[in-house]
Design a protein that fits this description.
By secondary structure, the protein is α/β, with parallel strands linked by helices. The two termini are 38 Å apart. The protein has a 6-stranded mixed β-sheet with strand order 16-13-17-21-20-18, with helices on both faces. Strands 22-25-24-26-28 form a 5-stranded mixed barrel. Helix content is 19%, strand content 30%.
Length: 397
């Protein structure tokens, strides 16, 4: 029997990114609902931040050179939001954190370092002490975020603080999810002999939502040639990306590949040098829609989404690949001769940082065991073991 060559993981990811079409974008008001969205255009600060010099402490605004002699009379007090005013010579002003620095002042004396005894009594300080300078964070006209940046809570706060009221963000990728198999039953229904409850469409759709996508459908499809073709035709017409699970091998009831071929979906690759997920299929429809055929085992489906489908969703929004996090293996892991291995683990704090503790059971049908994992250690192919203490890349779950 002829040996079928397996595509490397990195080459598979390159092909996926090469065939991931960019999706549209629209302008939205800045707000918390944009958390997790991806910028489609650079954002420029419209004001200095801070827009004026402010106090970083509750205390007293002074001219530093005037301290150390007679008490300085308190000319006025300034709260955040007040107009700053002008500090008279030979005097101090009470000031709150965040309040604007009065004209003429060049230092702040913290309240705990001063006393009011017939005026302000304080030890000498240096010009600039406890002052937040205007434009210290960003200056008007500077770029503070780039297209492809993910809008985290901190970045949303920075954009709002710098005066932008709207931003252009990528549309959410629309994803259709199909779980194939006549043995599948909807959760809650009585199981007939030979049936199992469907879980892959649920997990894939949930992963897609966490990846920032909008799920257009999450449906089951029986093992029937016409039903499979009809389901894929509808999914391709209604989504930016289609993901199915099961039916991508060459058995008598595996109808996914023939159905996709009949619909003109071009195969880009099939079968990769990875465990789990060896039968992974990837192709592109005539309109450019990427189509994934994931293995039917629930853990294989879960892992393949995190490694490959998520990469497509990210690329469709213009986000550049980022380095994966790394951690130490707590125990040795046996390597596979020709396939990279995704090992389900728990992340646990150790003496030298986070450690990856591999689960005892790694079979790809054990979804209950997999649910207890919070990371996937990526162990490269080879001989022997990757020893305890080795630093490896991982994917958070």
């Amino acid at each position: 029997m002829a040996t079928v060559s397996l595509l490397s993981v990195e080459r598979a990811l390159e092909l996926i990114r090469d065939h991931a079409p960019r999706i549209g974008a629209a302008r939205h008001p800045i707000g918390y609902r944009l958390a997790g969205r991806v910028l489609a255009a650079d954002v420029v600060a419209t004001v200095d931040l801070p827009p004026f010099a402010t106090s970083s402490m509750d205390g007293y605004a002074v001219r530093a050179a005037e301290l150390g002699g007679e008490p300085l009379p308190i000319a006025f007090r300034i709260a955040a939001g007040d107009r700053p005013g002008v500090l008279p010579m030979g005097s101090a002003a009470g000031i709150a954190t965040g309040a604007p620095l009065p004209e003429g002042a060049d230092a702040i004396v913290p309240i705990e370092d001063a006393e009011e005894r017939d005026g302000l009594v304080a030890e000498p300080t240096t010009p600039g002490a406890c002052i937040r300078r205007a434009a210290e964070d960003v200056a008007a006209g500077q770029t503070l975020a780039r297209a492809g940046d993910v809008l985290t809570p901190a970045l949303l706060a920075a954009i709002a603080s710098a005066g932008a009221d709207t931003v252009e963000v990528c549309d959410r990728p629309r994803i259709a999810v199909l779980a194939t198999g006549s043995e599948l039953a909807a959760p809650g229904l009585p199981l007939e002999p030979g049936q199992i409850y469907e879980s892959n469409a649920i997990s894939i759709a949930a992963q897609a939502v966490r990846a920032g996508a909008e799920v257009t459908t999450a449906a089951m499809v029986i093992d029937d040639r016409d039903a499979t073709e009809a389901a894929f035709a509808a999914a391709i017409a209604d989504a930016d990306l289609v993901v199915s699970s099961g039916g991508v091998s060459v058995g008598p009831h595996d109808y996914v590949k023939p159905a996709l071929d009949a619909l003109g979906v071009r195969e880009v690759f099939w079968r990769i040098a990875h465990k789990p997920g060896k039968p992974l299929w990837f192709g592109v429809a005539g309109d450019g829609t990427p189509v994934f055929g994931l293995p039917g085992n629930p853990v294989s489906s879960l892992v393949c989404f995190e490694l490959f489908v998520r990469a497509a969703l990210v690329a469709m929004q213009g986000v550049a690949p980022r380095p994966r996090p790394r951690a130490r293996l707590a125990t040795p892991v046996r390597r596979l001769a020709i396939r990279d291995h995704a090992v389900r683990c728990r992340l646990v704090p150790g003496a030298e940082g986070m450690e990856l503790h591999a689960q005892d059971a790694q079979e790809s049908h054990l979804i209950v065991h997999a649910a207890a994992a919070d990371a996937i250690a990526l162990v490269s192919a080879g001989t022997g073991h990757t020893e305890a203490g080795a630093i490896v890349e991982y994917l958070p779950l």
